[in-house]
Amino acid sequence: MPVDYEINANKYWNDFYKIHENGFFKDRHWLFTEFPELAPSQNQNHLKALLSENRGSEVPACRSSEDGSGLIREAQHSCSSVSLGRKTQPPPVEENVTQKLRHLEVCADEFPGSSATYRILEVGCGVGNTVFPILQTNNDPRLFVYCCDFSSTAVELVQTNSAYDPSRCFAFVHDLCDEDKSYPVPGDSLDVIILIFVLSAIIPDKMQEAINRLSRLLKPGGMMLLRDYGRYDMAQLRFKKGQCLSENFYVRGDGTRVYFFTQDELDALFTTAGLEKVQNLVDRRLQVNRGKQLTMYRVWIQCKYRKPLLSSTS
């Protein structure tokens, strides 16, 4: 039975999007609070304003957020100010030169978005609930967004969306676990890679190689951003006997699968792929459905991992 879910994974996700189309997930506008890297020009402008108004004072730490569903993050899990501090410091001159040379090498061969100076890839884009908010929030013409999904139905829904602009975005079908199929961008060309509730959908044995391949696409200094299901999330506790395929890996009623992570497991995946930890936190939330009089305890993990900058001697 587990083999059937692996072989027919594409069918199950296509069926999911054929049934729900673009009405299942809400646009993720909370992403810009959690991941300011997704709005680079806005973030830089905001930072300049802060520095000019508060010259000589410290840049404030990130605020804990409240998303559109009215879910409030616990104070002890608010994001670290360490990552913001790192981001505000200009890199050394030799690193700037190295990155400019790298950019020229990348642009030697044409590919979608080759003229862009800031490139974002979302893996497992679904119907565009992350991609379209990014494009709407950031009007910088130098930004280019790539997005891919296992489901051809999902990608078609992205491409036929009225907000889809081929001059700023490139949507394509891609299997995260297919080691023989290359991405439409060269290595060392992406600034940000986004994985939002997608890594958990693939078989655990294939997760490491998938992250290794994605890591090779990042520029030195580029970031991989993840948000996914944490161990003992309400969804895990509600699975019935017979739905467990392997340890902490389950199949839903519609045939799609989900894994529940620990922080250490994700840290091992990213560091093995050569990335450095910037953030790895547990987000615990109490979700209340007043209509159904249900109280649900959610456990999610949020990570930011950076590809090391090239040394001046390499």
From TrEMBL:
| Locations listed in the record | Cytoplasm
Molecular functions (GO terms): tRNA (cytidine-3-)-methyltransferase activity
Q: Which GO terms describe its biological process?
A: methylation; tRNA processing
Enzyme class (EC, first level): transferase
Tell me any Pfam family this protein matches: Methyltransf_12
Which residues are in the Methyltransferase type domain? 121-223
Quickly give the catalysed reaction. cytidine(32) in tRNA(Thr) + S-adenosyl-L-methionine = N(3)-methylcytidine(32) in tRNA(Thr) + S-adenosyl-L-homocysteine + H(+); cytidine(32) in tRNA(Arg)(CCU) + S-adenosyl-L-methionine = N(3)-methylcytidine(32) in tRNA(Arg)(CCU) + S-adenosyl-L-homocysteine + H(+)
The UniProt keyword set, sorted, is: Cytoplasm, Methyltransferase, S-adenosyl-L-methionine, Transferase, tRNA processing
Which CDD domains does UniProt cross-reference here?
A: AdoMet_MTases
Gene Ontology cellular component annotations, sorted alphabetically: cytoplasm
In the Enzyme Commission scheme, what number(s) does this protein have? 2.1.1.-
The UniProt family comment states: Belongs to the methyltransferase superfamily. METL family.
The record's section on PANTHER family has: METHYLTRANSFERASE-RELATED, TRNA N(3)-METHYLCYTIDINE METHYLTRANSFERASE METTL2A-RELATED
Q: What does this protein do?
A: S-adenosyl-L-methionine-dependent methyltransferase.
- Name recorded for this polypeptide: tRNA N(3)-cytidine methyltransferase
Organism (species): Monodon monoceros (Narwhal)
